[in-house]
Amino acid sequence: MNELGGARAEPMSRHTSLHIGGPADYFVRVRSEDDLVGAVRVAREAELPMFILGGGTNLLVADAGIRGVVFANTWSDVSVHGTVLDAASGTPLASVAAAAARNGIVGLEWMATVPGTVGGAVHGNAGAFGSDTASALIDARLLDLNGDIWNASLDDLAYSYRTSALQGTPTMVVRARFHGDPGDRASAVRRIKEIANERIAKQPLAQPNTGSIFRNPPGDHAGRLIEAAGLKGTRIGDAMVSEKHANFIVNSGTASAADVRALIRRCQAEVKARFGVDLVPEVELVGEWDD
Ligand SMILES: Cc1cc2nc3c(=O)[nH]c(=O)nc-3n(C[C@H](O)[C@H](O)[C@H](O)COP(=O)(O)OP(=O)(O)OC[C@H]3O[C@@H](n4cnc5c(N)ncnc54)[C@H](O)[C@@H]3O)c2cc1C
């Protein structure tokens, strides 16, 4: 395993936006396609489970941590060709939005305010302000655990609301291409400022969180249901349903993953009992859970 390099027993709390998560057995930074392919080969030969980490902004990592190896994707580069943007999977989504705006490309402004990487967005069909990854993606270069690499079309990824064919599979995103529309720089920058201000006004961005905890059920909003169930401000340990936006659970101090999961279950149970609606988590639970 020396060949992998990286850190041992790396606390995942350092790498998640909730500041929660136990140790990863091995933690390896990847900064290029070659790094990623090489690390996958070494881990496969050592028969280690693998997990690819983007920005850690949609994760609840178990207190017991993650067995095997975590690849921390810090490979960031984006190039612009006409109205097409070609980005490495570790590129912050906000950098794609910034490159688009700089080049007078419009339609990708929403990406500026969704934290995380291109890989995480392609995996989970991230979206905001009426748009999403599925509407912007041209294709994605993928890697499987055998080291095979291929290009997936939009159809191959079978997107719907916050879901894709990649979820539940070990397939990794290597790069992705997005398209915008011709426009002008000033209006793209103005739009980015508008939506950033809207977020600051509505979301508890000053406290560690993981964005929306639940997907919105068809025709409704998870936050509305949680608020109507009287759960705003409810705490389990230091995990708290935000007073500012009920579909956010914040870490108000030293919350554990178990606290957050218990609070997720409490919200699900109360909303189900009162309104008969099953809330489905948007946050991904990963790592070693007891049950
Ligand atoms: C303040 C805040 C606001 C948010 N607002 C939004 C929003 O408006 N809309 C929205 O959709 N989301 C939102 N989120 C959630 C989050 O930003 C998105 O889900 C984002 O796409 C996750 O990307 P990431 O790189 O952080 O992925 P991670 O959290 O690191 O990982 C999430 C999943 O993606 C997988 N993954 C990561 N990289 C790759 C890769 N290269 N190949 C294959 N799989 C990969 C991981 O293995 C994991 O399964 C918000 C989060 C925060 C903290």
Structural class based on helices, strands and sheet pairing: alpha+beta
DSSP strand count: 18
Helix tally? Answer: 7
Average pLDDT reading: 96
The distinct ligands, each listed once, are: flavin-adenine dinucleotide
For the sheet with most strands, the description reads: 5 strands, antiparallel
Helix content: 25-40%
Short overview:
By secondary structure, this protein is α+β, with helices and mostly antiparallel strands.
Describe, in plain words, how this protein is organized in 3D.
The chain is of the alpha+beta class and 291 residues long. Helices cover 27% and strands 26% of the residues. The protein contains seven helices and 18 strands. It has helices at residues 33-45, 93-102, 118-124, 133-136, 185-202, 222-228, 257-275, and strands spanning 7-11, 23-30, 50-53, 59-61, 66-73, 78-81, 84-88, 105-106, 127-128, 131-132, 137-143, 149-153, 172-179, 181-182, 235-236, 239-241, 249-251, 284-286. The protein has a five-stranded antiparallel beta sheet with strand order 6-7-13-11-12. The protein has a four-stranded mixed beta sheet with strand order 1-2-5-3, covered by helices on one side. The chain has a three-stranded antiparallel beta sheet with strand order 15-16-17. Helix 2 packs antiparallel against helix 5 (185-202). The radius of gyration is 19 Å and the shape is globular. The mean pLDDT is 96.
